[in-house]
Amino acid sequence: MMTLDEFVALSSALTGYPASTLLPARDTQKVAAALYAELSLSTNNIPAAQLDQLTQVWNSISGTPPPQLEAAVNTNIIQNLAITRLAQNIIYLWYFGIWYDLTKNPNSFLPLKNIDHVVSPLAYTNGLVWGEMGAHPMGFSVGEFGYWANVPTLPVIS
Amino acid sequence: MKKFNTITVLIAIGAVLTYLSFASCGGGTGGTQPLGAGSPGKVTTKLSPDLPFDVTLPPPPQRVLETTVRRAFDLFSWDSFIAISWPTDTSQVIGQHGDNPTLWETWKKNYQVFLDSGQAPGAWDLTTQSKEVNLSQTGKTPPNMTAIFQPFLTGPLIDQNGQYNRFEIAMNQEMFEYIDQHKLYNIQGQQGFTDTVKFPEGDNTKKVWGAIMVKASWKILGKGDDTSRFHKIKATIHVPALPSRGIKDSTYEAWVGLVGFHIGTKTVTSPQWIWSTFEQVDNVPVYGKVVKGKHYNYYNEAAGDKALNKAPAQPWNPAIPNQIPSQVMRLTPIDTGTQALNDSIHKMLVMINPHNVWQYYELVGTQWPVNPTQSNTGNPFPVYMANATLETYDQGFIQAGKIVYSPGVTSSCIGCHNASVTWGGRPSDFTYLLKTAKPIKK
User: Fold this and answer.
1) B122 in a structural domain
2) For burial by CB atoms within 10 Å, which of B59, B116, B182, B259 has the most?
3) Cα–Cα distance measured from residue B174 to residue B407, given in angstroms and rounded to the nearest whole number
4) Does the structure show a pLDDT above 80 at B27?
């Protein structure tokens, strides 16, 4: 089973966000823990062998120096058909706060299946996609009154 | 505001309490005897009228969000509550005679600042401000905002005697003077104010207080209420007219007991303000933990939970007969560390007098911005916080026996007040008070 630290480190490599952003020292939102819990949720039907393989592959490349890490992730995880869907799901988790059925065609625009679900309200509002767009989730904003009149600002990913 | 010197209050017999031991372990009151014991001698209590300027955080290596940092903010909350609930005669001690008139009750009420005429309010004068207690609000938000907030579940809170809760808002001298100096007390003044509204900040280094606003929730005392467990005052109760039911505008006098209390404090460390909230201990049970046979102010075990935490049906007017009492539970339990601090301070209050009414108030929580510069709301913690008498119907939802919180809907002091705005359409620095201003009457 993947540990929380492994999950956060892998997530950092997959999303491009620093681990300290995904799991901050002063963690008020508890999003990382909520997303990590999805990996052991029985109703998500994650094949144990697939999760183990992803964990092993990640541990084998996690020590790669940062300049080469992206290529290593691409070669060993993204291009690896045995585990790429699970890795893709982890990216979805962070960006949308949603768990998608692993068996679903990722390119399909069919309605969500029953197994698809929003992990939690905070996972949704903290989805990385909102910051990427310079936007905020529907019905929730931390902007100052009148922010909608200003040009959106985009995050700088280090 | 009168600036108090740091004082140590000598009241009865016993040992010296060290504040640090009290702060760190939540104890340290052993060996003292209550004032009521009548023994000669001296005891030192660190409960004092010294109002803190800002929170005092532990050194960085010792800062853990959910324990040491929370404790620091909770201590700030209790220190503030004790200081502003201190007797106006500072030669006395809080609760020395059971109950006492408080410092905050001498502060300007919102209706004394935002006059119906739109004219400039009177000068800060503690001797006249305290003589008037006019409880006209039947909802958390002032009357002219009620229409805005009704869709968000805000509604009256009705006690076990069928009486509506009443509410009042007051502010300290620093907040009042900012409003007064910038002529923000009427609509035209706010519309002409082109600068950013920025209330003064409390600062430990400069030893200055910042803006403080308080919101009090009162119940009309009646059948079944143990009046010795409430801070109480005699107030003028306003009943608004409801012509469709033949109800005329009227007033009457009644004794009311304090059941809920918010303190909002603007400080250097917390420009999104520090939000402290207290309740009377008999208000409501924690969800799923009803104490059998206990009298609650807003819960009746025999009534069932069909209408749990639901606002009463409209129309809303306190003079409508046979009102159904609100059925309320606290959805989020008080943090265990906060509760330990509550227990410690209650012991200190009992030491002063076994009949000290302030022992019947508990800190429900403190919300503060963890990263003030991260966003306009500064990453508040805890994410959600509610007072059962002030955010009664916004505590969260119960679905299939589970409590569900919803960002932007479930009560968050900072999250909600972030949307506050002036009549000039500018952010009003986390207070809705400015929106209660009226136009100048010609």
Assistant:
1) yes
2) B259
3) 32
4) no
Of A29, A137, A146, Cβ closest to residue B383: A29
| Structure confidence by residue, pLDDT tens digits, B310-334 | 999 888 889 998 889 999 999 999 9
Q: Phi first, then psi: what are they for B249, rounded to 5°? A: -60, 130
ipTM of the shown complex: 0.88
What is the CB neighbour count within 10 angstroms for residue A87? 22
In a domain, A154, yes or no: no
How does pLDDT run across B177-227, given as a tens digit for each residue?
A: 999 999 999 999 999 999 999 999 999 999 999 999 999 999 999 999 999
Please report the residues numbered 349 through 388 in chain B whose beta carbons come closer than 8 angstroms to any beta carbon of chain A.
370-371, 375-377, 379-383
Its domain, for residue A92, covers: 4-149
Residue A155 resides in a domain:
no
B64 domain-assigned: no
Considering only the beta carbons, identify the residue of B406, B407, B419 that sits closest to A145.
B419
Let me know if residue A139 belongs to a domain. Answer: yes
Contact across the interface for B415 and A139, Cβ inside 8 Å:
no
**B407 vs A121, A144, A147: nearest CB:** A121
Let me know if residue B221 belongs to a domain: yes
Q: Could you give the CA distance from residue B265 to residue B269 in angstroms, rounded to a whole number?
A: 11
Q: Which helix (H) or strand (E) holds A55?
A: helix A48-61
Say what the pTM is.
0.88
